[in-house]
Design brief:
about 80 residues; mainly alpha; elongated
Length: about 80
Amino acid sequence: MSTGLVPCPGTVMIFILALSKELYFIGFISALFMSLGMSFVIFIGAVLSINARSKSSNNPKLFSIFEFFALFIMFVLGTGMIVL
């Protein structure tokens, strides 16, 4: 519950820009669509992880392949954030 009290830094920046340009409604709509986009991505990730876990629960070899694939994806994304 306490996590919801802290606003997203991206949303804060949108609101600061909108307030400085006196574009209140556009700032609100931008923050709304940003939060909807993030929630959609989190939802898709949750659905994919639940499906992968249910399919690999009977097969330990498939589970380890999914596990290494997830680690590889996290490594690539982390390296990309450092390099770019």
